[in-house]
Structures are given as structure tokens and as C-alpha cells.
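User: My collaborator sent over this chain with a note saying "see what the structure looks like." That's all I know about it. Can you take a look?
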Amino acid sequence: MIKKRLVVLISGNGSNLQAIIDACANQILNAEVVAVIANKADAYGLLRAKNAGIPAIVHPFHKGGNRTAYDHSLAELVLQYKPDFVLLAGWMRILSQAFLCQFPGKVINIHPALPGKFPGVHAIDRAYAAYQQGLIKKTGVMVHFVPDEGVDNGPLICQEAVEINSKDTNETLEERIHQVEHRLFIDALQIVCNQT
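Assistant: Without extra context I'll predict from the sequence alone. Here is the result:
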């Protein structure tokens, strides 16, 4: 069976990237990460990629730059690696149709909240604040396709709830959510890689 080709886009630490690299290396996923692209030169995930022998590319967005032109050039860069899927693993930019139309049904994002809850940045912080106000008792993680410019609301692949308890701090909740992310992203990729 031919391995699926994965291009991973990151902006920071790359802990989800590491989970994907490990799952590929341990043959949990029938896939290989063929490139990692970061929009920030200091993204630690670039080092994770280099340590795994994966091309690690910086493609910065310059303040005041043209978003459509950036996304078009990013798409051209990604297309060189002929990906089966493009994974957004802590990618902190909304992709426009200039990028997304090049990869229909192939862009997958992970978000640390349940569908319809806390879209966008600081989702864990906002969920913890809502818990402290007595508004929610749980948050979670979801993995979904990205068909358009909607924020964290594409077709769902899988999700998992994470209970918030009275002993949690923002940091302990974040740690537990990251543990779920690392497992759930792999579960989602197993689903999509085996379907196509």
C-alpha cells in the first residue's frame, strides 16, 4: 500500500507535528511527512522536522503583505511536494481560497475545542475562563477538514470531550488537551488515510 504524503504547516512548537512524525516512524500511520513549512522562522517545530530528516522550510508572511499573494505562493510551495493531505498543526493563519482551492478535500486542521465552541485563537484559555464562570463543564478537541475560510468549523472527522475539574489550572487543562490532541490527530489521520 502506497504511503500517503503529508505536508504539515506549523507556526510554533510543533508538538502535534512530533506526534505525526512518531506515528509515521512507528508505522501507526501509513504515511510520511514529506515537508514541514512554518510561517515563523523561530518555530521550534522546524527543528523537530530537521531532526527527523524532513525538509523544514520557512515561508514568512511579512506585515503589510498581500494575503492572497502569500497564500498563492504558499500553495505553489506545497504543491511541489505532491501532498495527499495538508495538515494544519498549530498553523496560526486563516488560509484563503487562493490556497484552499488548490487542495480540495485535502486540508485538515486540529482545534482545541469542541465543534461550534471557542473558534479561533486562545481557545483553551477561553474555555477555562468559561468554566470558572460556571458556563461549561467540559471542552475538547476536534479534527476537521478546511473547505473554506470559516474558522474552525469545517466538516468534522473526529472529536473528543475533555472534562474540566475543580483542581485544573489553565496550565493543567492545556496539558491534558494537548495529550488528547496528539492522540486524536493520529486517529483522524488513520481514518482519512485508510478511506482514500
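A starting point for your reply to your collaborator: The chain has a mean pLDDT of 95.
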